[in-house]
Amino acid sequence: MPSPLCDGRCGSERGCVCLSPGRVCNTDYELKKIFTILFIVFCSTGFSQTDTGFVRTGFNKAYFKSYIYDTRDIIISPFKSSTKQWLIFSGVVAADIAIASQDAAIRDFALRNRNSITRDIQRYGLEPWGSGKYSVPLLGMFYLYGSVKNDERSKQTALLGLKAFVVSGIIVTIPKQFFHRHRPCPCAYGGKPDVGCATETPYEFEGPLSLNNDPGSFKDYVNIFLQSSDNSFPSGHSTSAFAMATVIAEQYKYKKWVPVVSYTLAGLASLSRVEANKHWASDVFMGAVLGYSIGKFVTRKKNWKVRTF
Predict the structure, then answer these.
(1) Which of 203, 283, 207 is closest to 241 using CA atoms?
(2) Is residue 221 part of a domain?
(3) Has residue 286 been placed in a domain?
(4) Structural domain of residue 242, as residue ranges?
(5) Which pLDDT score, from 0 to 100, does residue 266 have?
(6) Hey, which of 3, 135, 158, 166 would disulfide with 143, CB 3.0 to 4.6 Å?
(7) Is the pLDDT reported for residue 189 higher than 80?
(8) What's the Cα-to-Cα distance from 21 to each of 18, 147, 159, 166, 195, rounded to whole Å?
């Protein structure tokens, strides 16, 4: 069945989706109950292994200081990159530009093929892995299991995963505030129907600090600076999902199925943001690359005297 038409007032129709310019609305998904997943139980009971090569880990001063060090090092890393790394980065940018050229077509395809089933899967099965509603409790399961079973690898995975989640959330804010790209569905994030929902193309950027706007007060300026309807690029959910998935995949890469499951789940969680009409495909791709890079960096960094392999 076709989706109900929007009447121009965001939020007036739950789940309404329109392809007409200026009238693309969506519901603000909210988790209403705890989603119990067998994957959590399976992972928490299937990773037992004696880890004699690990030092003991925990929430200590060195660990929390490493948040500052890692964030700093990631921010300044472009200035220390090799020629090879810059070439790889150039390739990623080229790929993202190619995807961006098809953003509108991909968005339209996703909306034409969405239905109540895909919306429920997106809402309850996939999106929470990027927001942290499922992934952070999973990390808690890793830490609990490691504490009970004296498994340092499991505890370290929890600590590294949590740090990747927090650091990625900080880092992704930088390009979001620099580009201020319009979302495909700004009205779902507080934009005015006669202004925010008028986005017709994926190529609308406000630029650094939204300087094209004219705030009437400091409070208005702060609201513009933080306006999530103009913070589409890159996807924060995609960044967080891949950051944590990469940590788990790296920590348990000796089990071939773990990286496959981790990256598949992160990929589906990221694509669900396109299905929900909250991000362009190029937002999701760049978020995935950024999250993967942060996860790799956090796992391999030894700022808190914990050996990784």
Answers:
(1) 283
(2) no
(3) yes
(4) 38-172+234-300
(5) 97
(6) 158
(7) no
(8) 8, 54, 45, 36, 11
| Mean pLDDT, residues 162-181 | 93
Q: How far is CA 167 from the centre of its chain?
A: 12
Range in 209-223, 238-252, 286-300 the model is least confident about: 209-223
For residue 153, is it within any domain?
Answer: yes
More confident residue, 125 or 34: 125
Q: Are 31 and 124 in contact (CB under 8 A)?
A: yes
Residues linked to residue 205 through DSSP beta bridges, in sequence order: 181
Asked if residue 22 is part of any domain, the answer here is no
- Per the model's pLDDT, the better-predicted residue between 31 and 275 turns out to be 275
Task: Using pLDDT thresholds of 50, 70 and 90, give the confidence band for residue 134.
Answer: very high
Identify the pLDDT of residue 30: 37
The pLDDT of 259-283, averaged and rounded, is 95
The residue behind tokens 């929890």 is: 158
SS3 sequence of the chain: CCCCCCCCCCCCCCCCCCCCCCCCCCCCCCCCCCCCCHHHHHHHHCCCCCCCCCCCCCCCHHHHHHHHHHHHHHHHHHHHCCHHHHHHHHHHHHHHHHHHCCHHHHHHHHHHCCCHHHHHHHHHHHHHHHHCCCHHHHHHHHHHHHHHHCCHHHHHHHHHHHHHHHHHHHHCHHHHHHHCECCCCHHHHCCCCCCHHHCCCCCCECCHHHCCCCCCCHHHHHHHHHCHHHCCCCCHHHHHHHHHHHHHHHHCCCCCHHHHHHHHHHHHHHHHHHHCCCCCHHHHHHHHHHHHHHHHHHHHCCCCCCCCC
pLDDT of residue 215: 52
Number of domains in the chain: 1
